[in-house]
Amino acid sequence: MATSFIRTPRQYEQDCHILHSYFSGNFGAISNKEVVRIFVNRDSNALKLVCQTYSHWYGQDLLQFVSNVQRNNSFARIAYLRMVEPYERDAQLLRHSLFGGSLNLNTLIEVACTRPSSELLQIKHCYQTQYKSDLEKDLTMKISGGFKEILVTVLRSCRNYSSKVDMSLAMCDAKILYEALESGKNIDQRTIISVLSRRNNGQVRAILSSYKQLYGHELSKSVKRSKCGQFGKELQVVIRCIQHPEKFFAKQLRMKNADGREILIRTVVTRSRIDIKGINKAFATKTGSSLENLVVREFGSSKNKNNDIVVGILVGLIKGG
């Protein structure tokens, strides 16, 4: 569990000493457990203060240092994802997904559909500030087909952020969506997009719950039919991710990807203390194995200090929830 009290400067200094010894190659002065403890037990605010203290004592930007070496260093990648501001991290993920080479649609869906609308607002602002570009315009430029319209709609919907869910409104919207799907030979895409564009992610989850309550099955099953076409298939992916993010992440972890280690690291770090236990359960249901076992298979085969620390941090974050 993350500590909730304000840590003393001396304790921050101890964390900095451990990290400086590790990054200086002075492994004999520290143990693996000390490094693991920092990245498992500290919350984001505490890690921010560790970075500030490190800069004060050693004259080096710790976050920039791990950023520079994270590409080929799994521990540095974990350290960076744990220490960077979440909004900045997600803005970077979106930018790289759009302009980092080949288009990474799964990561775009991950960020747009699993972050609360309040966070999406901050992510979009950070993206604008960091890259001097509009996220929605960049997405429109790089993506084609139904996914473009659907994902832009999700991003725009965060403007309607509210901490309260209106179940009466959700019931009304569920009925509107049912009519849009069932009343004609073809689905009414314009009405579907209109409803989704006016409701934040939390309200959309309430609509999807209401839909199942009213009609006995999930909306994602309604859009699987042939009359829904490619738009229906793409809408289903987004809806399922919004409604059941733990299943989306579990599926990503089951897929054989060249960037499988990155997906594993990113999922565990970004979903710890949110829904990593649910992801672990969904993963185990489909595979008969746990995320802890997956981590050991990926990083535990070679006996080196770096991989031992990677396993310790990831397993610790999974168990900590």
List its salient traits.
Annexin V, domain 1, 4 domains, Annexin_sf, disordered N terminus, 321 residues, Annexin, calcium, 20 helices, calcium-dependent phospholipid binding, mainly alpha, single chain, annexin
Secondary structure layout:
Layout: H1 9-23, H2 32-41, H3 44-58, H4 62-69, H5 74-83, H6 86-99, H7 105-114, H8 117-131, H9 135-142, H10 146-157, H11 167-182, H12 189-197, H13 201-215, H14 219-222, H15 229-243, H16 245-254, H17 260-271, H18 276-287, H19 291-299, H20 305-320
Helix pairs in contact: 1-3, 2-20, 4-5, 5-17, 6-7, 6-8, 6-9, 7-15, 7-16, 9-10, 10-12, 10-15, 11-12, 11-13, 15-16, 16-18, 19-20
Structure description:
Helix content is 73%, strand content 0%. It folds into four domains: 9-83, Orthogonal Bundle (Annexin V, domain 1); 86-160, Annexin V, domain 1 (Orthogonal Bundle); 167-229, Annexin V, domain 1; 246-320, Annexin (Annexin V, domain 1), CATH 1.10.220.10. It is elongated and about 70 Å long. The protein contains 20 helices and no strands. It has helices at residues 9-23, 32-41, 44-58, 62-69, 74-83, 86-99, 105-114, 117-131, 135-142, 146-157, 167-182, 189-197, 201-215, 219-222, 229-243, 245-254, 260-271, 276-287, 291-299, 305-320.
